[in-house]
């Protein structure tokens, strides 16, 4: 009896993860491979974890939290519902697309300020870091930057004989098909391969563009650019001929073969960006301690609750009503 409850619990957590467990842990390991050693110490100190999986160990915490009663309020932070018109036009507009309860862009902005704050408790600083590790991953998943059919959750598809939905195959089925599992060790080896591609392989010449304009003091602008970058793949790769054609037939192997390079690219990008993001934050935090700031800076003001980040309240769109109806979660 007890073991079946435990198994059920694991299955529920596994199924619910955005960029599944494998994707998020891979992003975290890639970041660990690229951060400065001073950044690693900074993060290990905040998280109270000096193991060699200190970011990977917290990479899916935000997904576990969103499905608890206490953490339900954070569910909208995992995506931004772009109300664009794929496949003919893809775009992100903060005032149009970020919901009244927040979105992944406001969340990255809020937690980037909070992780640097000296005015909140150390456990709240740790929470901020855990959220950042997760959301910098989520924002690169194209369907986390798309409102169409609740981010593809309502596009029913078959993948390798399994009935599921378009959102879920991007989060989970396609990464797991590629790597064959979702254990921490699978994430570590995928991260090692992508790290090699970033250092010496086909991503070497692209990586500078992934972090161009990266600016922790304008986290909203930076994360909006990341959202727009991922959203563009909705039109070009996720549903280039619209979604209806995806609802018949099996998306394995033809669709998969076409999409998997983008899955890998987005995971690699997220890990590399996360490393540079954390490097910038850790460096600024170290400098702040040295200077002993007296002035209240912009970050501190945002850090109190981040409410100034949110767009003005407005009537809910149809897409927002549908999102609310499924409790801001993912279907699977
Ligand atoms: C900022 O983070 C705090 C702590 O998690 C939260 O209470 C607040 O709602 C967040 N604000 C925004 C705009 O996300």
TrEMBL record:
Molecular function per GO: endonuclease activity; hydrolase activity, acting on ester bonds; metal ion binding; nucleic acid binding
Keyword Hydrolase: yes
InterPro entries: PLipase_C/P1_nuclease_dom_sf, S1/P1nuclease
Signal peptide: 1-18
GO biological process: DNA catabolic process
Keywords linked to the UniProt accession: Disulfide bond, Endonuclease, Glycoprotein, Hydrolase, Metal-binding, Nuclease, Signal
Pfam family, one: S1-P1_nuclease
Top-level taxonomic group: Eukaryota
Assigned protein family: Belongs to the nuclease type I family.
PANTHER family: ENDONUCLEASE 4 (PTHR33146:SF26)
Protein's name in the database: Nuclease PA3
Organism the protein comes from: Acrodontium crateriforme
